[in-house]
Amino acid sequence: MTIGNRVYLKRSLPDPELIQRFSKLPTADVADCMSRTSGLSPEIKLQSSPDSYMCGVALTVKARAGDNLMLHQAMSMAQEGDVIIMSNEGDRSRALMGEMMYKYLADFKKIAGIVIDGPIRDLNVLANEKCPLYATGSTPVASYKEGPGEVNVPISIGGVAVMPGDIVLGDLDGVVIIPRKDAAAIIDKAEAVTANDPIKVKEAASGSIDHSWLKGTMEAKKVEFIDDEYSI
What we know:
RraA/RraA-like_sf, Glucose Oxidase, domain 1, Putative 4-hydroxy-4-methyl-2-oxoglutarate aldolase, RraA/RraA-like, 9-stranded mixed beta sheet, EC 4.1.1.112, EC 4.1.3.17
């Protein structure tokens, strides 16, 4: 087996009902239910104009910096409901995808979304498209197609580990990774948080939100309060 230059054709998939339930939740609420450690770096931003949240199953791509050979391989394997999510060794010099690749995935393959740790190009067109597309920015300079790379292996993107088959959720705030094996344990709590959001927003707007925790926290952290102005 050639480690670093291989394609796995199979992956374990989450329960489709979990995908459907997570698709209705904002990333912020889900991230709060995972100790606030599951969100990709804010450098990876939404570049298109979807009408709804992105939620699908991770089809992972590990690429050499500035090379999209294995992205093309993943495109040929992608199924409806997948989210192609691609690491790129932090490279920002070359666009990994443009209009033609995007249209193939969005219109023909009907995937749920695309997350790329690197730039794209043809942004003048892609900015108005509906399939969710996350990337770090844009450049007109194209990528190489030489490899090596891997498909359906663990990757690291935006400071978060992603396994093939994890749930990938995205909205205007960014992208959250929900580990496949943890999804069932998270969903009920996340739905409860979202259901309570309107109440908390109403309390915040009226000034009746509960801040009783603040005094105890400040005391526990030994914050000093000084009844004077700062001077030098």
